[in-house]
Amino acid sequence: MRPSSQPVPGRRFLTALPVFNEVRHVEGVLDEVLRFTPDVLVVDDGSTDGTSRLLADRLERQGDIRVVRHAQNRGYGAALATAFRETLSGGWDGLVTIDCDGQHQPRLIPQFLAAATAPLPAGASPDIVSGSRYLQHFEGDSLPPEGRRRINETITAEINARFGFGLTDAFCGFKAYTRRALESLHVSEFGYAMPLEVWVQAAAAGLRVVEFPVPLLYLDLARSFGGALDNAETRLAYYRSVLDRAEAAVVAAAHVDG
């Protein structure tokens, strides 16, 4: 999907960056993000490398960002759950999420916003615009680590089969969520598997989802997922267990509501 217009006037989206120990990158990424959107939230997930001090100094010096800090590291999903709450409590119309490690390109933020407000063939706008690194090839794309690509492909196919989506990238963190989407999502998976819980809940809520092509950039080929999850087969089994738990929770909630 390629939007041809700017976002509908009057729609206010917050842009949030989950950050943990990104002292080398965060200042430059923020400068770039602020070129394309004026409303930026940083969720500092208990950084210990000087990121927190840098953000506090910037806030005092320039006042051009909002900052929420977790006292301790709680996980990627926990940081995004905080961003969801801040967006809903602040009265925003939606939220864009973008990672702080340099793999996402802030220049695409206006296009995500346009996609989130553009009508679909049926007339309504999307509820979630999800970046996909595999929807289109861009010049300069990275060659993805084989194990990570295989797991993404496997889990994406399973999500499509189980929940009726047509996704090509289940894990991309570059997304735009409307307020309707945020009100339907209740994140309890605080680790890197949080996007999987989102897909299960999105399917249960009947949310409208479109993908938007983004460049494939892997800057941290040695990224750790934490302990045993660095083993590919263990990680794949864990992701499947997250899907199972999320689906069971949705079914249980439906029975209670019914």
Describe what this molecule looks like in 3D.
The longest helix has 26 residues, at 232-257. It is globular and about 50 Å long. The protein has a single domain (13-257), classed as Spore Coat Polysaccharide Biosynthesis Protein SpsA, Chain A. It has eight helices and seven strands. A seven-stranded mixed β-sheet has the order 3-2-1-4-6-5-7, sandwiched between helices. It is α/β, with parallel strands linked by helices and 258 residues long. Helix 7 (194-205) packs parallel to helix 8 (232-257).
Task: For this entry, give a set of tags.
single chain; 258 residues; alpha/beta; Spore Coat Polysaccharide Biosynthesis Protein SpsA, Chain A; 7-stranded mixed sheet; 8 helices; 14% strand; globular; disordered N terminus
Radius of gyration: 18 Å
CATH class: Alpha Beta
Overall pLDDT level: 89
CATH architecture: Alpha-Beta Complex
**Percent range for β-strand residues:** 5-15%
Q: What helical percentage do the residues reach?
A: 40-55%
CATH topology: Spore Coat Polysaccharide Biosynthesis Protein SpsA, Chain A
Residue stretches low in confidence (pLDDT < 50, at least 5 long) are 1-8
Question: Quick gist of this model?
Answer:
With 258 residues, this protein is an alpha/beta fold.
